[in-house]
Structure formats: C-alpha cells, structure tokens
Write a sequence for this structure.
C-alpha cells in the first residue's frame, strides 16, 4: 500500500463517469427506482397523516351541519367550512406530489 501524500487529495470521480454503458444504465435504473420508492413512501406517509384527521373533521362538520336549524349549505358558508372542488384537488395534489416527482426521471427517459 502506498502512503498518502500530505496536502489536498484529488476528488474521486463519480461512478457514472468511469463505468461502461451497461453499468451507467444500471446505475440510472437504481437511482430512478430509489426516487420512485421514496416518492411513493412520502406520499403514503402524507396520506396516513392527513386523511384520518381530515375524515374525522369532515364527519364532525357534517354532523354539526345536520343539527343546525338553518340550511346545511348556509351554515357551512357562514362558518367558513364550505369546500369547493378546487380545494379538494389542491389537497390531493399535495399528497400525490412526492410520487409524481419520483416519476420525473422516467419521463426523461421517454424524451431521449
């Protein structure tokens, strides 16, 4: 084994720049798979944290609106609890965004 020279050491080259084409392709597949798994895991984590309280609150609001003597729609509007389809779409997009970002490297392969 050769002794290390004092002073700054050259930085190692990343694997994709040193390997052959097959190794680079396998490395890219590994990175894409990792991004997809992480994105899906984060989406499931967000959904598991967000959905149970959201469903409980939604059911509680519906119960309160049913007991209100004035109309359900009017009560929800006065209380600021009325939801619009865009609000629900935005919430769904926030839960699914990590998975969608994990799919971006696969889209890059389609463009090449």
């Amino acid at each position: 084994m050769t002794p290390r020279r004092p002073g700054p050491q050259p930085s190692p080259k990343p694997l994709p720049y040193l390997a052959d084409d097959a190794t680079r392709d396998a490395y890219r597949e590994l990175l894409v798979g990792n991004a997809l798994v992480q994105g899906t895991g984060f989406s499931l984590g967000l959904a598991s944290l967000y959905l149970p309280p959201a469903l409980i609150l939604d059911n509680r609001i519906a119960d309160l609106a049913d007991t209100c003597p004035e109309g359900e729609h009017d009560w929800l509007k006065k209380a600021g609890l009325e939801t619009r389809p865009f609000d629900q779409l935005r919430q769904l997009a926030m839960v699914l965004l990590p998975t969608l970002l994990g799919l971006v490297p696969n889209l890059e392969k389609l463009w090449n």
Observations:
- The chain has a mean pLDDT of 76.
- Residues 88 and 94 are 10 Å apart (CA to CA).
- DSSP finds four helices and no strands in the chain.
